[in-house]
Design a protein that fits this description.
By secondary structure, the chain is mainly α. Helices cover 83% and strands 0% of the residues. The protein folds into two domains: 208 residues, Growth Hormone, Chain: A, CATH 1.20.1250.20; 197 residues, Growth Hormone, Chain: A (Up-down Bundle), CATH 1.20.1250. The N and C termini lie far apart (46 Å).
């Protein structure tokens, strides 16, 4: 029968189901805003700061509730948390579509972004870890490979929908997609209960292939690794959040023609997928912490290329490739590095605590970067992104070196 195969922990159907919900989730709850923000601003007739301020407030609250979401995942399983999360996401999108003033807009946006912690990658990684235990690395790579198409699909889809619908109609449609597509997939395909690591091995992965419990960090080593990871994820989160919202503005600042800027921006999505595909095919023999710092170096290098020759389309294209591959690999190591260092036990709470500071910083990034572009200019703003992404790479390199010295 198809049902036992589809529901087998860690099986192909679980990865595909989560991949679909991640594409719909990131596409509707995050990437669509980049396209719809100007229409929202025009519709309400207020300054852009109010539009982005509501988005930032939501991201900030998401950072505050992330540890709670992680604890709920560990306690009740991802099926319940992600199913309820999809329902709340759909209702929040419908509420956002009906907002008629600043209070209702901010309330809906805060609710929408706060619930993302229950449906985005961190929750999905916890689902795979609960299903596969310490053997979840391969599944995480496959999931992010599918999820990488979110921006590639939803930026043009949202733009096309705006030709026949207003921004409210687009959000209504996306709200229904959460209720009719994502919620059933989470309900029928996700693990229903939290499993101990030994139980997860027995259910799906051979015990001989599992990592021994002694490899997981404890005490001061665990705290140091956690702080370095939180710092790196937070700094990268600022860069990605700022660049994702303002990428076209940034490229225009280097005197690229609008059509060329759109093409280069569109290259980032496929580059993410390419990075994830490379990791999936060849990354098995490489430690996740090594992949983390090597991929992190691509981000400041790509931004440096943009700073040096951003007005030359070929060089700007190289930026898009390097930056996109770094983003793609970064999504993978966000799940695989904590799994390698801290183990599958309590993985939801661990991811929630790691996410909290990064989500709060990401909340400030779009508005802060908009102010930086306006007041300091494109050169200084790009230097800021280089500095933040470079510090993140250094933190991950220090983490990798400490792990090698501990062997």
């Amino acid at each position: 029968m198809a049902w036992p195969i589809a529901s087998r922990p860690g099986g192909p159907s679980l990865i595909v189901a989560l991949g679909v919900t991640q594409v719909f989730g990131y596409g509707a709850l995050y990437y669509a805003f980049t396209v719809l923000a100007p229409r929202i601003t025009e519709s309400f007739g207020w300054a852009p700061e109010w539009t982005f301020g509501g988005f930032a407030a939501g991201l900030f609250l998401g950072g505050l509730v992330a540890p709670l979401t992680g604890s709920l995942i560990d306690r009740h399983g991802t099926r319940l948390v992600m199913t309820v999360g999809s329902a709340l996401a759909g209702l929040s999108l419908l509420a956002l579509a009906e907002a008629r003033g600043i209070v209702s807009y901010i309330a809906a946006m805060v609710a929408l972004q706060a619930v993302t912690t229950a449906v985005f990658y961190d929750a999905a990684f916890a689902a795979l870890t609960q299903a596969r235990g310490s053997q979840a690395r391969r599944a995480i790579s496959k999931l992010t490979l599918i999820g990488g198409f979110a921006s590639t699909l939803f930026w043009p889809l949202t733009s096309s929908l705006l030709a026949v619908l207003d921004w409210r109609g687009v959000y209504r449609l996306y709200g229904l997609s959460q209720l009719l597509v994502c919620m059933p997939l989470h309900l029928f395909f996700l693990p229903g209960r939290v499993k101990r690591p030994t139980e997860a091995h027995a259910a799906g992965a051979p015990a001989a292939a599992a990592e021994p419990e002694t490899v997981y960090l404890t005490g001061d080593e665990r705290r140091r690794a956690f702080l370095l990871l939180a710092l790196a994820f937070s700094l990268q989160g600022f860069v990605v959040s700022a660049a994702s919202i303002h990428i076209l503005t940034l490229l225009h600042g280097f005197d690229l023609a609008p059509a060329v800027a759109v093409v280069i921006g569109a290259m980032i999505g496929p580059s993410q997928v390419a990075g994830r595909l490379i990791e999936m095919l060849f990354g098995r023999a490489v430690s996740p912490v090594t992949t983390a710092w090597v991929s992190a170096c691509l981000m400041p290098l790509g931004l440096l290329l943009l700073l040096i020759g951003g007005n030359i389309p070929v060089i700007a294209g190289c930026f898009a490739v390097g930056y996109g591959m770094s983003m793609g690999l970064g999504s993978i190591v966000r799940g695989t590095v904590p799994l390698q260092l801290f183990g599958p036990a309590g993985f939801g709470a661990t991811m929630g605590k790691l996410s909290a500071p990064g989500l709060a910083i990401r909340a400030a990034a779009p508005l802060a970067f908009a102010v930086s572009l306006e007041r300091a200019g494109v050169t200084a703003s790009t230097l800021l992104l280089i500095a933040f992404s470079g510090l993140a790479a250094v933190a991950l390199f220090l983490l990798a070196r400490s792990q090698r010295s501990a062997l």
